[in-house]
Amino acid sequence: MIVGVPCENYPGERRVALVPAIIPNLTKAGLEVVIEAGAGTYAGYLDDEYSAKGGKILPERAEVFRAADIVVQVLCYGSNDRTGQADLPHFRPNQTLVGFLRPFGARETLHEIAACGVTTFSVELMPRTQSMDALSSMATLAGYKAAVLAADTLPRIFPMLTTAAGTITPGRVLIIGVGVAGLQAIATARRLGAVVSAYDVRPAAKEQVLSLGARFVELPIEAKDAQDARGYATAQGEEFYRKQRELLGDAVAANDIVITAAVIPGKKSPVLVTKEMVARMVPGSVIVDLAAERGGNCELTRGGETIVEHGVTIIGQFNLASTVPYHASQMYARNLTAFLLNLVKDGNLQFNEADEIHRETLLTRNGEIVNARVREYLGLPELAAESKGA
Amino acid sequence: MIVGVPCENYPGERRVALVPAIIPNLTKAGLEVVIEAGAGTYAGYLDDEYSAKGGKILPERAEVFRAADIVVQVLCYGSNDRTGQADLPHFRPNQTLVGFLRPFGARETLHEIAACGVTTFSVELMPRTQSMDALSSMATLAGYKAAVLAADTLPRIFPMLTTAAGTITPGRVLIIGVGVAGLQAIATARRLGAVVSAYDVRPAAKEQVLSLGARFVELPIEAKDAQDARGYATAQGEEFYRKQRELLGDAVAANDIVITAAVIPGKKSPVLVTKEMVARMVPGSVIVDLAAERGGNCELTRGGETIVEHGVTIIGQFNLASTVPYHASQMYARNLTAFLLNLVKDGNLQFNEADEIHRETLLTRNGEIVNARVREYLGLPELAAESKGA
Fold first, then answer.
1. Contact B163/A44, CB-based, under 8 Å?
2. What is the DSSP letter of A183?
3. How far apart are CA B177 and CA B172, in angstroms?
4. Strand positions, DSSP E, A131-214
5. What ipTM does the predicted assembly reach?
6. CA B289 to chain CA mean position, Å
7. Can you tell me the distance from the alpha carbon of A184 to that of A179, in angstroms, rounded to the nearest whole number?
8. Cβ count within 10 A of residue A146
9. What is the pLDDT of residue B128?
10. CB neighbours (10 Å) of residue B45?
11. How far apart are CA B218 and CA B200, in angstroms?
């Protein structure tokens, strides 16, 4: 079987789905790898390096799609701006596509992809804490980068310094939403010498926050079933969020930097930082909203943009992992490879309905959206058992 | 006596010469402080805060100059682009100006300032390791910011991470020139988890480098009188620099980030990183050239700009301290205040030729450039003793 790596085509996307060092792992399992010329350039991986590791460089994009039994991408077609739509005619039934398919995104694009007949596996649907969990890999990098970006934007420095010109007090950073990204943001801000506190609706987060040397912000309100079986925060009622906002206001105002990372899979992000809270922050403060892609945790966030309101810089940049494309591609390639090696047996793709990983990640097959969670999200009826396993 | 703080007028300059918290220290010594409206805004200090601490806000720039016996600035008139020239008519004999006057900069502007009759003290000429040493304060912040900026630009992350998707190797950072800025760059890159090495022509730097947990790069060449009485590196012959470049090439190529901070007061910065060395770096690497203002330590640096050559991003931004204006202004205000309190006795400016601090920093008086070091730099004859002390 042949695995194909086209160039990414989203504006500003610098990652690549596979890196040269990983190719021998695939070759050993009987898979060949073809790469569109220049696919790794922006991530720092040159065509020659792919060739040296046994990959085959193809000059034309269409050739990659023609040759590949399995196409691997970072960002697949699936946003509202139609980027990648031109690739749809390249797909054929019995071909497989693996990548970020944004299964809880635009309904229309999901149907368009399904209609190509291509079998798709969405990495966002991967069960967690696996060597294949690309969402966690990218969140780790986004959390790191959020803290670095904040440090680069703040008109103050992070560490406490004692100099001949007196003492400089350390920066104060608040992290809201302590998932993988939030934890890495805490660790990075701490590394840089800031005083860090963090808040999460899940009580389980407290221990992790404390273990990183940060303070846990306790609000005297209780969330119902704060955590789902996958370890993600669950959505709460509007009354809960209203009370939470009221109590969070003081914590926000007391910090120079607020990094929000409260994302609920398949849902619009809850607004945790209101415009009133932003107005109470010291001018020059910085908010990095890692939930910007799903509407943002800050009321004033503009997706994909950096704006200044009430003297506060609000960074709503999407896809921070793509700004460290070298390591993001390396981690993603490892995640993908672990997944492919799980999926491919004896040189053939062997889908196994009984395997949680296969079952949870399968998104479309035979012209249909088959994933149970996604069908529920789209309001589609449950599929009959024989259709799912077909 | 009245101390006046005008708005800074260099494009992009966000610092301010005095901050509200320092005003009471001046008031206690019998000095009043007047501030041009909005002078502290970009640094994060509001007019109301100045008023609350006893400062007087004046709406017009000209009023500040009219009222002030001592004008304090960050960047005084003195660059080639004529910014600040419009202030020259405001100055009068028996008025004093303290700030960054770039005494080893453009000859013409120095003569123009002298011709105003204003008495000027240049903070760059301050003897080192004093609470008044603004050059060290700003270098500390520039070194911190260089590392943060590099981290924000690099397509990799700095720390080593061990994740479910395997291990990420740490970033490799080389610091060339280990003065105050270089040391802070080492400390900051280390905080972020990078593997750091450093090189300096002064053997005395080795111990400092090691104490920060970095490796010292030893080149088998010897510098003559590597350090002057003030602790700054001295200029070496062209043959020395040629050999140094030859040996540094491997160290440069082995790192993802090179931060250069080899500045020699009053001289053009030595070229330490040639274009051939840049070409040998891995694409995606980053150079931050803290010597950009004096020609740069990297041959390809373009002053004030960020460029990409051979896939390497070369940052030649001037004045990095101004990007953390809150703390830069705080430190600078403390430096200035310590200096003013040293200069003012019983509510009057008391110049004392015998005081090293007074003597070394005095730049112009009675229409003349009087500083011995600067006269030497400009090729002017030594002043007669009676003229100096007049």
1. no
2. H
3. 16
4. 161-163, 166-168, 172-176, 195-199
5. 0.92
6. 13
7. 9
8. 28
9. 76
10. 25
11. 9
* Domain ranges for chain A: 2-133+324-388, 140-318
pTM: predicted TM-score of the whole model, two decimal places: 0.93
Specify the CATH superfamily of domain A140-318: NAD(P)-binding Rossmann-like Domain (3.40.50.720)
Q: Is A334 helix (H, G, I), strand (E, B) or coil?
A: helix
By Cβ distance, the residue of A151, A324, A332 closest to B148 is: A151
Residue A136 bears catalytic tag = yes
Two structure tokens written together for A150: 């904040």
Q: Which two tokens stand for residue B38?
A: 């909005």
β partners of residue A168: A161
Look-up of token digits 């981690």 = A331
Residue in A25, A46, A131, A157 to test binding to B, most B beta-carbons within 10 Å: A157
Q: Which two tokens stand for residue A256?
A: 């120079």
CATH superfamily of B2-133+324-388: NAD(P)-binding Rossmann-like Domain (3.40.50.720)
- Residues found in chain A: 390
Residue identified by tokens 């430096």 is B335
What is the Cα gyration radius of chain A?
A: 22
Which residue reads 């500083």 in tokens?
A: B371
Does the active-site annotation cover A128?
Answer: yes
Q: Which residue from B321, B219, B162, B24 is spatially nearest to A157, judged by alpha carbons?
A: B321
For A23-63, write each residue's pLDDT tens digit.
Answer: 999 999 999 999 999 999 999 999 999 999 999 999 999 99
How far apart (Å, rounded) are the C-alpha atoms in residues B70 and B4?
A: 6
